[in-house]
Amino acid sequence: MKLHNLIKLTQMVVIVLIIFAGRTDFGINLPPIPIYIGVIGIIGLLLSFIIMKKREGYGLSNPLYTSLLFFFSIILLVGNYTDTNQYGFTKSLEFTFYVFFLILIIDICIQQRKDLINLIKSFYFVALLMALTSIAMGIVNNTLFTERLTFLNSGSNTFSRMMFMGLSANIFIILSSKRGFIKYFGLWIFLGAIFLSGSRQTILGAVIFVVLFLLLTTVKTKKIKGKVILKFTALLTFLLIPIVFLWPLIQESRFYSRLLLLFSEDKGASFNVRTWLIEQAFLYGKESYLFGNGTGSFALKLPEYIYPHNIFAEIFMENGILGLLILFIIIIYPLYNMKKINIRSDYNTKLVNDTLLIMYLFSLYTAQISGDLYDNRWIFIFGLLLLKNAVWTRREYVESKNSDVRFKQSIPQYKGGNN
Asked: Does the global pTM surpass 0.85?
């Protein structure tokens, strides 16, 4: 491997590690910073990135998306300015000076589709290492089947999300590679880790989105080769084999009993509480529906829960209709820009897009039932990656069309010289 390629791959691994990083405890108890200081700081750093990139010969890949995130961060800061809640202050800092600038760094580092592919592969390698480490620690501590699997106390739900990203990347590697049967065994490792985490939301999401992923890779494709169909069949087989052979063990597991609660009248404490929290968030949000009650204000209303485990309810309650509108635009914008990508691209390009799309949709799905704004930061990250791939695909499509026109114009009969 060339040094340049090694450096780029290392960059992608570091980005994945940062994306997977847990919540930062600033360990400080300060009053909210004046909003004008925060705004000036953000603008100054943003301009420095733009200037640096201009000197290198390219600007922001999608200034509109970056501007939307920038405006959203201001809304969070403005809301926090009227709120002395430490959680709101921390959340504003996390999004503004961590999530927002992480997205800018990703925008700088990923400049071609090969970088995107390396990033997807990095999700696979990092998640696989985490899964193997967690399973090994569970075996050593004799807690593999008695406690919910996690990695360094990251939380079982968060850990299971990371495992799904690894699973999606694993499917991408299998479908995009020409050889290497060993890669199929990674499917069992990721599925096992998700199952042992005991996360109902992730295992249900994995079933839905893996099926959707496999359908996306085979429909609306100009050419479906026999090898693709063979890989598709092999994937389904590898995914079903452990379920068939381990079904008796699955039925006796804690996860299976928790899963059955979803189909009973009493769906379990976790489900019932989260449904109630969402209702309370919308109820409190009506008190100040235009601009919200302030960033982090849910923690003041219900300090024992801190946030409602639904990103839309959270933003509506704390930042009002204005914040919710900006969030909707941020979410819809990447999907709008990729609406024609699958009919314009070849199979490999489409596969990259489908992988990112599944990761994006899965992140949107989990954002409705778990975590707060920071926990669901992956929405904004995968949104940017979808946009970058869409921009490259459109550019390639236009260049291909222009090339066809130039070729036709070079033929005498198209010039009118062949009568």
From this structure: no
Which residues fall within 8 angstroms of residue 39, CB to CB, at 6 or more apart? 74, 77
All residues at 6 or more sequence positions from 125 whose CB lies less than 8 Å from its CB, including other chains = 13
Q: For residue 338, which of 356, 362, 363, 359 has the smallest C-alpha distance?
A: 356
Alpha-helical regions (H) of 82-146? 86-94, 100-109, 113-140
Q: Which amino acid is at 344?
A: R
Computed on alpha carbons and rounded to an integer, the radius of gyration of the chain in Å comes to: 23
Longest dimension (CA), the chain: 85
Round to whole Å and give the CA distance between 132 and 246.
Answer: 20
CA dist 120 and 107 (Å) reads 15
State the average pLDDT over residues 351-357: 90
* 183 pLDDT higher than 70: yes
Query: In whole angstroms, what is the distance from residue 20 CA to residue 186 CA?
Result: 19
CA angle 28, 30, 31 (to 5 degrees): 155
Q: Is 240 exposed, middle or buried (0-12, 13-18, 19+ CB in 10 A)?
A: exposed
Question: Is pLDDT above 50 for 76?
Answer: yes
Tokens representing residue 174 in the block: 């299998």
- Please report how many Cα atoms fall inside a 13 Å half-sphere around the Cα of residue 233, on the Cβ side: 6
Neighbouring residues of 197: CB distance < 8 A, sequence distance ≥ 6: 148, 149, 150, 156, 157, 159, 160, 163
pLDDT at residue 361 greater than cutoff 90: yes
Angle at the Cα of 77 (from 335 to 303), degrees rounded to 5? 95
Beta-carbon count within 10 A of 244 CB? 7
Contact of 85 with 318, CB cutoff 8 Å: no
